Fold each of these.
Amino acid sequence: MGIARKDKNIIRLHRRIDIRERLERNSVYCGDCIIWCGSATPDGYGRVGRGGKKDGISPTITAHRAAYLAYIGDIPNGLELDHVCQNRLCINPGHLEVVTHQENTRRAWVRRIPSTHCKNGHLRTTENTYSARGWQECKECQAITNKRYHGNV
């Protein structure tokens, strides 16, 4: 099993700055999740750039893939990471599981069933929940994250 082509960018990233330091500097803790506060893709996944352009292209890797590679190891070809916490911005390696695309899709479908509480136990209502970047987010959890990120906690 080799390293997937898109993961080779992480090797270049290691040369510019220690990826672990970068991940820790750009994230905050919210419950068990470690939330990426850097840039994100249009569909809500964290994004880490390699820090420069080569041939007019700025290669990036998703933040959760970078975290898994930095703390756990390689992701076998043909497999992908599933956020078991259901938070696309979470980079906690303990919340990432290597699965097939079919299994990841199946889990996503099962998770569409509405829940009554967020993962941290807050009641999910229309008043304290909003949709952002393709998923629902608890306003109480977001307030905690904002306070931690801005140093008010």
Amino acid sequence: MKFAVRSALVAGVLSIAVLPSAFAEDKAEDAVKYREALMEVVGGHTQSFFALLQGKVSHPEDLAWHADSLAEASKRVKGAFVQNTAGSGAKTEAKDGIWAAGSEFTKLAGDFETAAANLSAAVKSKDQAAIGPAAKALGGACKGCHDEFREKQ
């Protein structure tokens, strides 16, 4: 019993000692890797959603899951770009101007979040007339931000 209590105390002290590092600024390379992984998730769900919508693949039961996943991922985009990695030497597809743009980027990321939420709601409603325009709005939101803040591929 004493060993269990002692072990719990040591674990508690160690977790408190490590906690401040969880709030430290990330290395630029790690921040970029995280952002790119998040955007790959967004891209994967977007491509899968449109493949389903266009009838290229037949897994209609997954349409709502992809729409919901896009809506959830879209909530994380603004936060993924908080750390300014411009001039850090980290290889990124984000233009350095993204951090200078401030409210313009925040607005475009917000447009994406809104479009993704609207798409999810349209799919859940099963209103076929609403899904197409919501999907088009999502594509427009992606394009708007990429045209402004992503290096050309």
Amino acid sequence: MKEDIFEGQLTGKRYANFVWPSILMMVVLSLYYTIDTIFVANFVGEEGLAAINIAYPLQGLMWGFAVMLAAGSSALVGIEMGKGRRKEADEKFSFVCVFSVVLGFGFSLLGIAFLTPIVNFLGATEVLTADCHTFLGMFLWGCPFAFLGVIFE
């Protein structure tokens, strides 16, 4: 028989079971940024490191939208599953997957179309503009896949 996760007293062990996946995700994401920074600093140099630091706010905005979409959609799908309506839950999940890819492409296209004003707004100097364009250009093409990846987490 399955244990009802909402019954009984909340203990430290039960709480840890709820939060460890989120903590692990944040650690992995932090490692991604740290490793990215180490490689860029060692192989590209100071200008490359400065360029990715200028680009981080745009990355944070993208991740924020993706996580917001994932959190909201998981609640909606969970409600449908809790009501025993598997077909409606599947339909909502399918819609969210398609919507996340469309939103990711929209984010990519807007970012690429306005890349120069965005880079200038974020504070890139003439020396850093080319590196910022390179880094953000590659990053922006991956947004649809990143959005979908966050949905599947």
